[in-house]
Amino acid sequence: MYRLEELSSAQARELMSREDAIVIIPVGSVEQHCEGPLGTDLMIAQGVAEAACERVSGPCVLAPPIAYGFSAEWSLAPGTVSLSLQALQLLLRDVITSLVRSGARNVVIVNGHYGNSPAVEAALRDMMPSLPPEVAVVQVNYWEALELDVGHASDAEAEVMKALGYSVDFGRCECLQGSPRGAKVYVRPGEGPATLRSPARGLTRDFIGSAVAEAIEAALGAARGSRRPLP
Ligand SMILES: [Zn+2]
């Protein structure tokens, strides 16, 4: 595994332009997590991306994370730092375009925050016509890769943090019940809890890294495959 910030320009070019090289960009958020750290989703995105980067086949370059995300739903809570939708999408566009210009062909967003995922998806779709056809860009949401029902500041999220080496206690969270969040918005009504592949308890970094590496390779394969587009 290589860290982009530690490579020289020539090393980055040589590594990233290999056909089998994968470049991972962790995307997190800085937002209230009850009594736990504001950067929970950032810490998870980074930890998960690093564990997966160590385990994919072929060289893997880990780019510095995009720390802030789209956290409109928690913007009224102190400490939350949210990008506007447009800012996140432009940031993704600039980072991905730069990496592709440097030779990257397989670019992976490892996302740690649920609220980012529709924004990231829209940004990636928007970029399709402007990137060369040999490039694949995919988003992997870690909770989907782990098939875990991870709620905001939940026990499951604490278990993921623990597996990555952080000890957290999210404690009480009135903000989940009564504190102001603005208008109530709910989308994806068909979405229920994911099927648990394993109980969150006892999760290990090794399991997380392997499952996410597998999901990354599957997503890149699907992006390059001939699957019929959804309606
Ligand atoms: Zn979270």
Automatic annotation (TrEMBL):
It comes from the Archaea. Its EC number is 3.5.2.10. Keywords: Hydrolase, Metal-binding, Zinc. Its cofactor is Zn(2+). This is Creatinine amidohydrolase. The keyword Transmembrane does not apply. It is an enzyme of class 3 (hydrolase). GO terms for molecular function: creatininase activity; hydrolase activity, acting on carbon-nitrogen (but not peptide) bonds, in linear amides; metal ion binding. One of its GO terms (biological process) is riboflavin biosynthetic process. It comes from Acidilobus saccharovorans (strain DSM 16705 / JCM 18335 / VKM B-2471 / 345-15). The keyword Hydrolase applies.
